[in-house]
Amino acid sequence: MKTREYTFFGGIHPRSYKELSNKYPIEEHLPKSQVIIPLQQHIGAPCTPLVKVNDYVKVGQKIGEANGFVSAPVHSSVSGKVVAIEDRPSSSGKLVKSIVIESDGEFNYDDNIKPNEDIDNLKPEEIRQIVRDAGIVGMGGAMFPTAVKLNPPPDKKIDIVILNGAECEPYLTADHRLMLEKPVDIVHGLLAIMKALGASKGYVGIEDNKQDAIKEIRKACKEYAGVEVAVLKTKYPQGSEKHIIKAITGREIPSGKLPADIGVVVDNVGTAFAIAEAIKFGKPLIERVVTVTGEGIMTPKNLRVKIGTPFRELIECCGGFKGIPGKVISGGPMMGIAQYSIDVPVIKGTSGILVLPEDRIALKDPKPCIKCARCVDACPMNLLPLFISAYSLKNDFNKCEEYHALDCIECGSCSYVCPSKRPLVESIRLAKREILRKRKK
């Protein structure tokens, strides 16, 4: 009997380019000298530094205290001396106050890093506290503090947890490799999330172009009731939170609402793995898997790296640039952020470093919209991108709001299919920013 494949309306099918790196097992990379650890690697309030220049710190030591409910602490990923606390460029494109640590190469762990009880012996509130103390955030790129997701309002009953293993962005393969190499830990993390929320059903959503990962995760799920793999049709943006929920559960998040409002919580498979490590070893979020890939890289790889490692080091670890780089992107080509420096550090949400050669980024001048409606067909949110963009370019943001610009997830599907190469995503993003600015007034 054919396995059911879950999907959603709209979306696109860009070439994946995953063959560049998906066969390479995860390699560990240790930073050569300095790490740069931003005090804000999450949505919400930035951290307050707990150390000062010349302090000696150890691996896993908390060096930034979370301020506020929506926040997450940061920890040292190396042992060594704090040499600076100052504003540094971040992959977000902003200057962020950061703690710069000169590694001593010893990687001595903090004495407070100790294993916790097994999940069966932990209470839901204890799991939530472990996750918060470990500074775990959404590792698919959103970087929303996971402890907040695990602590919904009392009137929001969560009955379903979904682990997002779609990894629908072209080029990226970090989650794929993690599912192949650490399936038991990923399912362990899923069970912890379910217990923290009191959920009875858990899914791991994986696209059907990752049959080997589907096999491994199914094997890891086998002994647990209420946990299963949901095979997703390969389509972008299948990994969008709203669309993976719609595809698997049939539930739709109303405009302006959150997954918790319909009884669902979604976390990335990397987040589940980090939770498992926090419970089993007491290990805070100090490292992650990053795909370094693209036609502009000599040897694409999947690397397990310490938070704070500069992009430059990882590019060098992969043999350096192949030819002249045209663009370096943090993340994937659809929703990633182009970088103006390769000295920015890996942060908790860095899923990939993509290098495209010069001949891949030739820009074409936009032409007038021909009203072909391809953007409408592709939009997974059922929006009218051509009209939102047109009103945005005329600075008519009230009209943009009427066309539900805030519901745009900025997936880039509209820009990808536009034959006139209109700046659809950029102009809609501007409209969203202006609408939110007006609301704050």
TrEMBL record:
<feature type="binding site">
    <location>
        <position position="408"/>
    </location>
    <ligand>
        <name>[4Fe-4S] cluster 2</name>
    </ligand>
</feature>
<comment type="function">
    <text>Part of a membrane-bound complex that couples electron transfer with translocation of ions across the membrane.</text>
</comment>
<dbReference type="InterPro" id="IPR037225">
    <property type="entry name" value="Nuo51_FMN-bd_sf"/>
</dbReference>
<dbReference type="InterPro" id="IPR017900">
    <property type="entry name" value="4Fe4S_Fe_S_CS"/>
</dbReference>
<keyword id="KW-1278">Translocase</keyword>
<keyword id="KW-0004">4Fe-4S</keyword>
<dbReference type="InterPro" id="IPR010208">
    <property type="entry name" value="Ion_transpt_RnfC/RsxC"/>
</dbReference>
<feature type="domain" description="4Fe-4S ferredoxin-type">
    <location>
        <begin position="359"/>
        <end position="389"/>
    </location>
</feature>
<feature type="binding site">
    <location>
        <position position="375"/>
    </location>
    <ligand>
        <name>[4Fe-4S] cluster 1</name>
    </ligand>
</feature>
<dbReference type="InterPro" id="IPR019554">
    <property type="entry name" value="Soluble_ligand-bd"/>
</dbReference>
<keyword id="KW-0249">Electron transport</keyword>
<dbReference type="GO" id="GO:0005886">
    <property type="term" value="C:plasma membrane"/>
</dbReference>
<feature type="domain" description="4Fe-4S ferredoxin-type">
    <location>
        <begin position="399"/>
        <end position="428"/>
    </location>
</feature>
<dbReference type="Pfam" id="PF13237">
    <property type="entry name" value="Fer4_10"/>
</dbReference>
<keyword id="KW-0408">Iron</keyword>
<comment type="subunit">
    <text>The complex is composed of six subunits: RnfA, RnfB, RnfC, RnfD, RnfE and RnfG.</text>
</comment>
<feature type="binding site">
    <location>
        <position position="372"/>
    </location>
    <ligand>
        <name>[4Fe-4S] cluster 1</name>
    </ligand>
</feature>
<feature type="binding site">
    <location>
        <position position="411"/>
    </location>
    <ligand>
        <name>[4Fe-4S] cluster 2</name>
    </ligand>
</feature>
<keyword id="KW-0677">Repeat</keyword>
<dbReference type="InterPro" id="IPR026902">
    <property type="entry name" value="RnfC_N"/>
</dbReference>
<dbReference type="GO" id="GO:0051539">
    <property type="term" value="F:4 iron, 4 sulfur cluster binding"/>
</dbReference>
<feature type="binding site">
    <location>
        <position position="369"/>
    </location>
    <ligand>
        <name>[4Fe-4S] cluster 1</name>
    </ligand>
</feature>
<feature type="binding site">
    <location>
        <position position="418"/>
    </location>
    <ligand>
        <name>[4Fe-4S] cluster 1</name>
    </ligand>
</feature>
<dbReference type="InterPro" id="IPR017896">
    <property type="entry name" value="4Fe4S_Fe-S-bd"/>
</dbReference>
<feature type="binding site">
    <location>
        <position position="379"/>
    </location>
    <ligand>
        <name>[4Fe-4S] cluster 2</name>
    </ligand>
</feature>
<keyword id="KW-0813">Transport</keyword>
<dbReference type="Pfam" id="PF10531">
    <property type="entry name" value="SLBB"/>
</dbReference>
<keyword id="KW-0479">Metal-binding</keyword>
<dbReference type="GO" id="GO:0009055">
    <property type="term" value="F:electron transfer activity"/>
</dbReference>
<protein>
    <recommendedName>
        <fullName>Ion-translocating oxidoreductase complex subunit C</fullName>
        <ecNumber>7.-.-.-</ecNumber>
    </recommendedName>
</protein>
<keyword id="KW-1003">Cell membrane</keyword>
<dbReference type="GO" id="GO:0022900">
    <property type="term" value="P:electron transport chain"/>
</dbReference>
<comment type="similarity">
    <text>Belongs to the 4Fe4S bacterial-type ferredoxin family. RnfC subfamily.</text>
</comment>
<dbReference type="Pfam" id="PF13375">
    <property type="entry name" value="RnfC_N"/>
</dbReference>
<keyword id="KW-0411">Iron-sulfur</keyword>
<dbReference type="InterPro" id="IPR011538">
    <property type="entry name" value="Nuo51_FMN-bd"/>
</dbReference>
<keyword id="KW-0472">Membrane</keyword>
<dbReference type="Pfam" id="PF01512">
    <property type="entry name" value="Complex1_51K"/>
</dbReference>
<feature type="binding site">
    <location>
        <position position="414"/>
    </location>
    <ligand>
        <name>[4Fe-4S] cluster 2</name>
    </ligand>
</feature>
<dbReference type="GO" id="GO:0046872">
    <property type="term" value="F:metal ion binding"/>
</dbReference>
